[in-house]
Amino acid sequence: MNRFIFQRDGICLSIGFLTIVSKEMEAEDELKKHHDQLEEIVHERTAALTILNAQLKQEIAERKLAQEKLRQSYAKLQRNLDEIVHAMSLTAEKRDPYTAGHQKRTTELAMALAGEMGLSEHQIKGVQMAGLIHDMGKISIPAEILSKPGKLNEVEMQLIRRHPQAAFEILKNIDFPWPVDLIVLQHHEKMNCSGYPQGLAGEDILLEARILCVADVVESIESHRPYRPGLGIDKALEEISKNSGILYDQDVVDACLRLFKEKNFRYQ
Predict the structure, then answer these.
(1) Is 185 left (phi over 0), alpha (psi -120 to 50) or beta?
(2) pTM, 2 dp
(3) How far apart are CA 117 and CA 252, in angstroms?
(4) Which CATH number is 98-261's, of 3.30.160.250, 3.40.1190.20, 1.10.3210.10, 1.10.443.10?
(5) pLDDT at 29
(6) What is the rounded average pLDDT for all residues in the chain?
(7) Spans of all domains in the chain
(8) Alpha-carbon span 215 to 221, nearest angstrom
(9) What is the spatial distance between Cα 116 and Cα 255, in angstroms, rounded to a whole number?
(10) 126-166, pLDDT tens digit by residue?
(11) Please, is 164 exposed, middle or buried when counting C-beta atoms within 10 Å of its C-beta (0-12, 13-18, 19+)?
């Protein structure tokens, strides 16, 4: 190690030691420099994250507001549809007073059947909408035929059989979230293609229409009609049991029998 002694000034320098001290000072300076840079980066990133967080909060708030407005709009649309369908139902029943309440009771049974068969809430709502107006096509039929106390002749029966198509022509122009027009059109179709108006068979008939068909038949048989008194629920269940898998969907019939015989279904 080299030393330099300055006696007059009383100084003694060691080159090796000075070199070591200088390197330590340089290291400290470099460390401080990196520390300052790191702090600056952290500060910048923190500021950026703070701004981003504020933006995300704003976007979430705006999205929640939009979702709430959408929910309110959907609820309003649903209320409007309910009111329209209710008005249509009342119109049909005013036209055919002997079946007043028929659409409502048929709808209650059809919804119960749909629930028993595990259909979704959305599908059940569609069944409800279709059920409440499934006979609205009867507004096109002369009142004297609807209220005729005796048996209908062939021409009169042909007019009656037009009511699903007449309803379809009205409903197809309404943008329902469910296939209401097709359910109403097909609710008199039978599994063996003996129904009307299209003579469809089996699974070509919408499930909701097959459900509505059974509910319609059961309610019609047990209730009073202009040409006969009500025959009661036992007769109605006998009819669907006898023709299960022939005229009526077997799964729907089984669900209907469970409702009445095991779960004590009653109209409200």
Answers:
(1) alpha
(2) 0.74
(3) 8
(4) 1.10.3210.10
(5) 74
(6) 87
(7) 1-95, 98-261
(8) 10
(9) 6
(10) 999 999 999 999 888 888 888 888 888 899 999 999 999 99
(11) buried
Q: How far is CA 231 from the centre of its chain?
A: 37
- Quickly tell me which residue has 């007449």 as its tokens: 166
Q: In three state form, how does the secondary structure of 2-61 look? A: CEEEECCCCEEEEHHHHHHHHHHHHHHHHHHHHHHHHHHHHHHHHHHHHHHHHHHHHHHH
Query: How does pLDDT run across 186-216, given as a tens digit for each residue?
Result: 999 999 999 999 999 999 999 999 999 999 9
Length of the chain: 268
What 8-state DSSP symbol labels residue 80?
H
Distance CA(241)–CA(253), nearest Å, equals 7
Tell the residue number behind the tokens 């059809």, with chain if given: 110
